């Protein structure tokens, strides 16, 4: 079992959240709707029929939430900026209230010795930009770069560390292929065009940020899945190739190696479209970054599937794949727990860019927590999940991987997208009726770990 002193003294220990999942106050301060405000109102889109209108009411309670972080002993906090709170309607005019909120948040963090890591896009596209075609349109990449430049101009004196996109796979394929996330489109393999425009927006944003603030540190966060075939059969190995390709390599390769994986473009039937894009795009996308953020939750075990299954899938072409239940323990999301898969994905990313610092920008688990009669929340499974993955980080360092930080998802329970309020990932329990926060036993475990008190 690892202890904090197994990690370098300057290792970044944080928790993470995202704007629409925690902020609430969706109609205040000139903020305009994002695709999630609209999608959450589509009947049946959200499991429990809730919206993010209130969520954790973080806009009004952020000072208490920063105190909570300080009490846990973290030295960093990863949050995201709501594009339409800072720039209503996705235009170029800064909202004074929106800016004041993010400046106050960053100042409160800095006053408590907590380093802010700001994500520019955690899935909440201004609805006006979606109405103009969203990420299926190239122009959205330019709009994103303009937004990034303004955000960094206005906040870059307080925030040094910037993440352009969070999990572009989700934005592209859950948003535009399966349609289970906003904007709820089912555009088939054209969802890959959204992936390209997201990545193009990333590359353009990196250039804009560097022009605006040369001292900024900028990266991107990808959700990577360790992917293994269920058997050595050629068909199962090919199933793993497909999923690793769509989930991991379609993003890692353009960002870190300056090209798309041909096999994935062929699987998608989209090679022609990609080849018709300006040749400069891949160079733009491969703009050097200062770090890579990796979100890791689980592993996929794949076997050959039934091409006639007719499933509307997040991974176009994945009807050729079956995901195998290996019998490993899983969280309430149904995601199998494989801590060593975290090392797999860090090694995979590292192989593309051996010098590049890596951060685990999200890792965590959902369980059906309950408040006991004495007011405590005991969540031993989450504490164990956390411990096992922190141990995997220690092992990654031991193997020489340039891992620089770990952010637990999430600081507190929050609005879990299509699951609404029905899934809890927090180290801190939130009573949505009263907004009372209670540190769970997993949060206490993290606090003890961070003070070096064993566990
Ligand atoms: O809640 C999400 C987060 O917004 C992105 N990564 C995965 C988390 C858990 O599903």
CATH-derived topology:
TIM Barrel
Main structural class: alpha/beta
- The total count of helices amounts to 16
- Tell me the helix content: 40-55%
The total domain count is: 1
Taking the alpha carbons of the first and last residues, their distance comes to 9 Å
Q: Would you tell me the overall average pLDDT? A: 96
- H and E string: EHHHEHHEHHEHHEEHHHHEEEHEHEEEH
Give me the Rg, rounded: 21 Å
CATH class, named Alpha Beta
Heteromolecules bound: 5-hydroxymethyl-3,4-dihydroxypiperidine
Strand content: 5-15%
Task: Explain what you see.
The protein has helices spanning 19-22, 35-39, 58-72, 83-86, 96-111, 127-131, 139-155, 168-176, 191-212, 234-257, 262-268, 271-275, 280-285, 339-352, 380-398, 441-450; strands spanning 12-16, 76-80, 115-121, 161-166, 217-223, 226-229, 291-295, 299-304, 321-323, 358-362, 403-409, 428-430, 437-439. It has 16 helices and 13 strands. It is α/β, with parallel strands linked by helices and 455 residues long. The protein has one domain (4-451): Alpha-Beta Barrel (TIM Barrel), CATH 3.20.20.80. The radius of gyration is 21 Å and the shape is globular. 40% of the residues lie in helices and 15% in strands. The structure holds 5-hydroxymethyl-3,4-dihydroxypiperidine. 5-hydroxymethyl-3,4-dihydroxypiperidine binds next to loops.
């Amino acid at each position: 079992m690892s202890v904090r002193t197994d990690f370098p003294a300057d290792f970044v220990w944080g928790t993470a959240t995202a704007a629409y999942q925690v902020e609430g106050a969706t109609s205040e301060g000139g903020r305009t709707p994002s695709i999630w405000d609209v999608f959450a109102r589509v009947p049946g889109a959200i499991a429990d029929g809730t919206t993010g209108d209130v969520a954790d009411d973080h806009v009004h309670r952020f000072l208490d939430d920063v105190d909570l972080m300080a009490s846990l002993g973290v030295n960093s906090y990863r949050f995201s900026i709501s594009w339409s709170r800072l720039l209503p309607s996705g235009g170029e005019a800064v909202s004074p209230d929106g800016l004041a909120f993010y400046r106050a948040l960053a100042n409160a963090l800095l006053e408590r010795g907590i380093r802010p890591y700001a994500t520019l896009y955690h899935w909440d596209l201004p609805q006006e930009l979606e109405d103009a075609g969203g990420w299926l349109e190239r122009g959205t990449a330019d709009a994103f770069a303009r937004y990034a430049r303004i955000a960094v101009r206005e906040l870059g004196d307080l925030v040094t560390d910037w993440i352009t996109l969070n999990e572009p796979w989700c934005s592209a394929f859950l948003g535009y292929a399966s349609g289970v996330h906003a904007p709820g489109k089912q555009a088939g393999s054209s969802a890959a065009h959204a992936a390209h425009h997201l990545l193009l927006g990333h590359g353009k944003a990196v250039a804009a940020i560097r022009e605006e603030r040369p001292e900024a540190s900028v990266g991107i966060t990808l959700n990577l899945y360790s992917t293994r075939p269920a058997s050595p059969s050629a068909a199962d190995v090919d199933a793993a190739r497909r999923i690793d390709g769509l989930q991991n390599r379609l993003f890692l390769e353009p960002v870190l190696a300056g090209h798309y994986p041909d096999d994935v473009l062929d699987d998608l039937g989209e090679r022609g479209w990609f080849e018709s894009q300006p040749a400069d795009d891949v160079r733009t996308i491969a703009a050097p970054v200062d770090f890579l953020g990796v979100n890791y939750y689980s592993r996929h075990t794949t076997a050959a599937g039934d091409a006639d299954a007719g499933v509307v899938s997040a991974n176009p072409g994945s009807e050729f794949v079956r995901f195998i239940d290996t019998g490993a323990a899983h969280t309430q999301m149904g995601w199998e727990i494989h801590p060593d898969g975290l090392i797999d994905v860090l090694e995979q990313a590292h192989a593309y860019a051996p010098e590049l610092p890596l951060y685990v920008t999200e890792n965590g688990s959902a369980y059906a927590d309950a408040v006991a009669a004495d007011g405590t929340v005991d969540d031993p499974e989450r504490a164990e999940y956390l411990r096992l993955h922190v141990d995997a980080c220690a092992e990654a360092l031991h193997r020489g991987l340039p891992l620089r930080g770990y952010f637990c998802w999430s600081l507190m329970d929050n609005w879990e997208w299509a699951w609404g309020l029905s899934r809890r990932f927090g180290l801190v329990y939130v009573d949505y009726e009263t907004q009372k926060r209670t540190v769970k036993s997993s949060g206490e475990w993290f606090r003890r770990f961070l003070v070096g008190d064993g566990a």
